């Protein structure tokens, strides 16, 4: 079985591919939601899926794996474990991703950015900016689900474990809103 098909089967088996009316982190609405946390709670699936990212980047020069909180933390930790690299994360402080908890990036430090799901890539771009502002080097970007089907280009080597086109809408153009289907935000950020 091809790896993308296998991963989609794992998402379905763990009830992590949700259908309904969802508010994405990007602010867009969608009829599908990938709840990676439901997959990553199983160590065997976490190891299997993250090994695709780790294998892709195993010959790259990497000092540190970094992720945006919350979704990317487990992915980064497992990829870092498999690569034998230090793992850190950025978290929101007053709506801006920042390094806290004593984490830092040294000038020249080579960082692999990891995330669970990419729709517009907003959080990943923020982490890339943190690395650049610290005078670190972005070695690449690895993530589990590419909801853009390859449209998001981070400007560095990148690898997703599954890439597909998932429909999303601007809030004012959402047909699900027009049908009065309740909006749900199942991720880590709250609906305002």
Structural write-up:
This protein has 192 residues and is α/β, with parallel strands linked by helices. It has one domain: Rossmann fold (3-Layer(aba) Sandwich). The chain is built from 6 helices and 9 strands; from the N terminus they run αββααβαβββαβββα. Strands 5-4-3-6-7-8 form a 6-stranded mixed sheet, sandwiched between helices. α3 (43-57) packs across α4. It starts with a helix and ends in a 14-residue tail after the last helix.
Topology, pairings included?
Elements: H1 3-13, E1 17-23, E2 29-34, H2 36-40, H3 43-57, E3 64-68, H4 71-83, E4 86-93, E5 96-99, E6 110-118, H5 122-133, E7 137-146, E8 158-163, E9 168-169, H6 175-178
Parallel strand pairs: 3-4, 3-6, 6-7, 7-8
Antiparallel strand pairs: 1-2, 2-9, 4-5
- Describe the sheet with the most strands: 6 strands, mixed
At the third CATH level, what is the topology name?
Rossmann fold
Ranges where pLDDT stays below 50 over 5 or more residues in a row are none
CATH architecture classification name: 3-Layer(aba) Sandwich
| CA(first)-CA(last) distance | 41 Å
Mean pLDDT: 92
Strand composition percent: 25-35%
**Radius of gyration, taken over Cα atoms and rounded to an integer in Å:** 16 Å
Number of strands: 9
The largest beta-sheet arranges its strands as 5-4-3-6-7-8
Total separate domains: 1
Question: Outline of this structure?
Answer:
The strands form 2 sheets. A 6-stranded mixed β-sheet has the order 5-4-3-6-7-8, with helices on both faces. It is an alpha/beta fold. It has 6 helices and 9 strands.
Task: Name a few traits of the molecule.
3-stranded antiparallel β-sheet; 6-stranded mixed β-sheet; single chain; alpha/beta; Rossmann fold; 192 residues; 9 strands
């Amino acid at each position: 079985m091809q790896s993308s098909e296998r991963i989609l089967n794992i998402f379905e088996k763990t009830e992590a591919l949700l259908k309904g009316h969802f508010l994405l982190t990007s602010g867009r609405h969608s009829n599908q939601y990938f709840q990676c946390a439901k997959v990553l709670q199983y160590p065997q699936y976490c190891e299997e899926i993250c090994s695709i990212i780790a294998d892709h980047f195993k010959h790259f020069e990497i000092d540190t794996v970094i992720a945006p909180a919350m979704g990317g933390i487990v992915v980064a930790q497992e990829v870092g474990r498999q690569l034998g690299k230090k793992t850190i994360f950025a978290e929101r402080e007053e709506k801006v991703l920042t390094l806290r908890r004593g984490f830092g990036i040294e000038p020249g430090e080579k960082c692999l950015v990891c995330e669970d799901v990419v729709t517009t890539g907003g959080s990943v771009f923020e982490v890339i900016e943190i690395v650049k502002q610290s005078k670190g080097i972005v070695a690449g970007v690895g993530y589990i689900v590419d909801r853009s089907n390859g449209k998001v280009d981070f400007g560095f080597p990148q690898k997703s474990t599954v890439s597909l086109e998932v429909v999303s809408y601007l809030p004012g153009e959402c047909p699900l809103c027009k049908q009065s289907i309740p909006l749900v935000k199942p991720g880590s950020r709250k609906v305002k």
